Amino acid sequence: MRTDATALVMRAGELLEATRAQRPLVQNVTNLVSMDIAANALLAFGASPAMIYAPEETEEFAAIADALVVNVGTLSATGAESMDKAAAAARMHGKPWLLDPVAAGLLTYRDGVIRRLLRHRPSIIRGNASEIMAVARIAGITQEAAAPRGVDSRHGASEAEALAVKLARHCFCAVVATGAVDVVTDGEQTVRVANGSPLAPRVTALGCSMSSVMGAYLAVAPSPFEAAFAATALYGVVGDMAAETARAPGSFRVAFLDNLYSIGATDLVARLKVQ
Amino acid sequence: MRTDATALVMRAGELLEATRAQRPLVQNVTNLVSMDIAANALLAFGASPAMIYAPEETEEFAAIADALVVNVGTLSATGAESMDKAAAAARMHGKPWLLDPVAAGLLTYRDGVIRRLLRHRPSIIRGNASEIMAVARIAGITQEAAAPRGVDSRHGASEAEALAVKLARHCFCAVVATGAVDVVTDGEQTVRVANGSPLAPRVTALGCSMSSVMGAYLAVAPSPFEAAFAATALYGVVGDMAAETARAPGSFRVAFLDNLYSIGATDLVARLKVQ
Amino acid sequence: MRTDATALVMRAGELLEATRAQRPLVQNVTNLVSMDIAANALLAFGASPAMIYAPEETEEFAAIADALVVNVGTLSATGAESMDKAAAAARMHGKPWLLDPVAAGLLTYRDGVIRRLLRHRPSIIRGNASEIMAVARIAGITQEAAAPRGVDSRHGASEAEALAVKLARHCFCAVVATGAVDVVTDGEQTVRVANGSPLAPRVTALGCSMSSVMGAYLAVAPSPFEAAFAATALYGVVGDMAAETARAPGSFRVAFLDNLYSIGATDLVARLKVQ
Fold first, then answer.
1. Helix (H, G, I), strand (E, B), or coil: what is residue C124?
2. DSSP class of residue C223?
3. How far apart, in whole angstroms, are the C-alpha atoms of residue A63 and residue A90?
4. CATH code of the domain covering residue A149
């Protein structure tokens, strides 16, 4: 491990403690599948979730929240209006926001909404490898067609790495492409996190909940890149810990939330596998 | 413990058995985060949940249901229309209904909806301490500004007690303000329940599910106050029992539902800490 | 057990393996309560869920998906539009689809939506006994009024059997009426599955998740009847297995998902009780 990687790992440990201590209020305009686990993950971790969903309320709440997470799963016209208002308001109030482009590349309507959301300049874009590759196409960086299979990735994160770097540079943001190995980049620095369990993609919306917890870090970290890395590290190590006691998806979900609650900076730093 | 408190505790035990035996049908016009756990809590407890949500159906269903629970989380214009219709129909058919004013005091739109719902005369208002204080302001009882942090309380229930009593008198209903100690009042009698675990607020929508189970009691109890007290007692003691085996939020949620299913009147009466 | 029943059981074992191997993409236009558990059940089993919900997206997605599941719980006008579009598109693209008529017979609006959906010719109709009896009335086969209590059945599957057979003949589809004993019929053949636990109806939307997993089988099985039987068999046996370690609904739900992940064809065939 190079020295700057070591420094990054140490900062991930510090950020875990700092984020919990500040208990940021995270607004989630998220999909109907993920609401339960995203709110539970934020609470277990130690942040304060608000699942403010409708256009009547998202804009006003964005002024109160410490960070915003927009997730385009189970998208509808009303949801799209909400997301647009929330992202615009977050920008206006100087609040950082994260875009989770669920199932990008599959559906015309959704890709249009993602294109419009990109104009509000997210601080982080987090998706599985296929989704990140699709967002790169939506952003006009590549012609290469890529799409997940439903919401499940078809690609490994290493396949997405080059496009993730370009996307980060193009959008001036951090990009996280998750997979067996996760890639985190801001276009300048790129790190890979090799933690995590194959059971994680067998639990619905666990990736969405990672975006929500990353939103908590965004409210506290000095840069989107550090927030993106620290939350990716946390989810990888918590996945490892959960897989030590759970052998199947039902109990893995329970163990995951339990470890998200109990993990300390020392565990995180000791177990993290950065490349 | 005074004699009338003892009598109240005994009645809570009797009501637990009576409510299970009658298995009331509880209509929930509730938020998107709580649907899963509210329905699961009602089923585990032994009641019959119906999450009838849209304005096309809420009115007709209110005539069939034994009680109605309205929860303003993840509020939208459509949801507000549904709530209004459901509460009006419940009143018309003589069915008791409960209002859960999630995040009251934070958002203009939501506070307006809560104000309109109060006109339909809920039998019980149940919220965390900050929410109850905010409803008191919405009802015009106080000028004091109070609001939760997102959906999490900023206040202890003791801070809310005086306003809870005033609110109960003003609205001719029972009021429950939950916290480390829960306050239950109908404006005449006030009791405090000192059971419960600090893990409970780390599980999303567990308070919403308490409102739903309280709705089941409303269908059976002789008065809103007794329903409010018995359900508050149940949730406190079940929280204590769950915390005996679970040390973190994921397994606490599972243990909570398990104990909601298995708890008997004897356990409830023996463990209840009433002040 | 007659020889053809033995053959059916063996095919259920083969279909379990074949469906997992193909990992079909199942589109769910489902209710707000079931999204989490339906997606988790599909993932735990080994299929790929997509909870594409809004009318802006359902039609386009139906061309991509391998099968469609339509569930009328928490129905709204927007949801009804989505279901209509999705079912029409599934038919046009030759994709099989399943109808789960939650709470049929209770509400005017919902029964009208179910009547219209029947015109799109579902491959399978799956509900509890009361719902199947109500759909038979909606389809004009009987005058007999029947309805569930909220979403819970009032009838045993044996009471529904004659109407289930008539409904299957009338709609040229397979029909599953679940209960303590489940009935599976295509109007020609009828089998009963006597597996399953009384804890299953104490977990919300577990029946909805069964419909979703049945949708995965529909994408792979040679006939709707075989898909219906194999998924009913799977859910019954997994219920038995879960009840061996779990004694209450919270842990039953976790154990159910765990066993849905780990069950193999041998377990299924050995434990299946067919009548």
1. strand
2. S
3. 7
4. 3.40.1190.20
Q: Quick check: C137 and C143 in contact, CB under 8 A?
A: yes
- A98: β partners: A69, A124
Of B35, B50, B260, the CB nearest to C151: B50
All residue ranges of chain B with pLDDT < 50 are 1
Query: Measured between alpha carbons, how far is A141 from A138 in angstroms, rounded to an integer?
Result: 8
Chain C touched by B245 (CB under 8 Å): no
Other Cβ atoms less than 10 A from the Cβ of C149: the count is 15
- Subunits with 3+ C-beta pairs closer than 8 A to C: A, B
Mutant choice from C108, C204, C209 vs B, greatest count of B C-beta within 10 A? C204
Three-class HEC string of C38-53: HHHHHHHHCCEEECCC
Q: How many beta-carbon pairs below 8 A join chains B and C?
A: 96
Q: Is B3 exposed, middle or buried (0-12, 13-18, 19+ CB in 10 A)?
A: exposed
Range of the domain at B131: 3-271
Mind listing the pLDDT tens digit for each residue in C194-240?
999 999 999 999 999 999 999 999 999 999 999 999 999 999 999 99
ipTM (interface predicted TM): 0.96
Which residues in chain C touch residue A253, judged by CB atoms under 8 angstroms apart? 40, 254, 257
Which segments of chain C have a pLDDT < 70? 1-3
What does the pLDDT look like over A18-35, one tens digit per residue? 999 999 999 999 999 999
How many C-beta atoms surround the C-beta of residue B156 within 10 A? 16
Contacting residues of A for B75, CB less than 8 Å apart: 54, 56-57
| Listed residue (A120, A236, A119, A116) closest to A176, CA to CA | A236
Closest residue in A to C65 (Cα–Cα): A150
Sign of the dihedral defined by the CA atoms of residues A244, A247, A248, A251, in that order:
negative
Distance CA(A239)–CA(A250), nearest Å, equals 14
pLDDT at residue B1 in the model: 44
Quote the minimal CA–CA distance from C151 to chain A in Å. Answer: 21
Nearest to B75 among A32, A54, A257 (CB): A54
- Nearest-angstrom CA–CA distance, A177 and A127: 5
Number of folded domains that form chain B? 1
Rounded distance between C-alpha atoms, residue B166 and residue B190, angstroms: 11
Taking the CA of residue B207 and the nearest CA in chain A, the distance in Å comes to 13
Residue A270 CB partners (closer than 8 Å, separation 6+): none
Question: B137 — contact with chain A (CB < 8 Å)?
Answer: no
